[in-house]
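PROTOCOL LOG
Step 1. Enter all chains and additional molecules of the complex.
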Amino acid sequence: MNPPTNSQARQQLDEAFRYAFLLDWGTRIGLLALVLGFAAYMSGLLTPHVPLDQLPSVWNLPVKTFLQRTGTPTGWDWLDLAHKGDISNLIGIALLAGCSLPPLLGLIPLYLKRRDSAYAVICALIAIVLVLAASGLLSGGH
Amino acid sequence: MPQNLSRHPSPFLTALQRAGTGLLVFLMLTVPAYAAEGVVPASSMPWWFWPMALFVTCFLIGIVAVPAGIGGGTLFVPIIGGFFPFHLDFVRGAGLLVALASALAAGPVLLRGGLSSLRLALPLALIASMSSIAGAMLGLALPASVIQTALGLIVLGIVTLMLVSKKSEFPQVAQPDRLSSALGIHGVFIDGASGRAIDWQGHRTPLGLVLFLAIGVMAGMFGIGAGWANVPALNLLMGAPLKVSAGTSGLVLSLVDSSAAWVYLNRGAVLPMVAVPSVVGMMLGARIGARLLHILKGSVIRKMVITLLLFAGIRALLKGLGLWV
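Step 2. Run joint prediction.
Step 3. Record the structure below.
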């Protein structure tokens, strides 16, 4: 076995700490938004798009039928209804689903500085996959 | 059950066993609560009952999932999909978020502790992220009965894997493969139990990439966290130490589930009333589970979880086949 040198171990810790710092803050912000959004939804502070007492008649339907029945938008069109109690929760969910992006982008300069182009490219490619997934272009959300 | 535990049962263990039994009894009781009509039968209970029941169930799942060494998402989809009145589309969307939130919460701690390797995780996450998008799209396109049947089979497969799979604390890797060398897939971590610095390196990287392609599809299609598949693949196939495999699995999951979660979000398959109580309940339960980790006998909890999974897997299979609706 070729054990990693001290400097390699140090480098790996540097990248882990940078990734962890950005991921930690992204997760905290996402969870906070999620809890606040749900509190506003349940307390009635924000009126829901689908009334609470009507939920049991639609949450057992396939998603396509649910969307037709409730007039809930797909893709990023939910942003237009972000002031509604139920839809406002999607802000926290989107933050959680997107919070891996800053750590990935944060690693690219570190790898480029070390001339570790393979990992810089891998980070960039994962970031592109995440952005494409979020855009709805791959999944036909629009 | 080991003899010493039989003679001196820990109050925590007794409480947890009661919680597990309570969960099983609750799940049995929820079945007759459905009225007879519809693909997913409508519930006769008031609307607020189900989010509360979801929170309590996820809290209990969170407690038992950590000591059992299994991701909460793996238990979530078969149990909630089998015994709650929500359509499987919303259950899978929530399942992905449960697995994602758990992986995100644990990720920074594991990275700082050197138990999660970015060099090992990133190439695998790239492949699995792409395939999880395809899996999510496929899952939302197929009829629910097909997904439910396949889910039942997968869960029964997980039960088998949990019963027969071996683990290797520190696998011996004599020679890394060319791709592993080129990508520098190696590292060092401090083993908390012995205090030793352990050097490790990976091998069989091309085969690992192919396996993670399939793992990504399953994660996206069923909305279950894929820790049950990630850890054996990283540990037994690619030669990473067991603790590094478990830590790195969470990092891979955080990226794979993010990609798939966007598909569910864009398609409108994330229902906050299902997703949020699940995420919060699971995270609170997991915190307690992590604290009980040093007190509880992992093997006993593991047997309890295997029993729960077996029950949920059979239920999913029979529900998918229309034999137990």
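Step 4. Note key features.
The two ends of chain A are 51 Å apart (CA to CA).
The longest helix of chain A spans residues 6-43.
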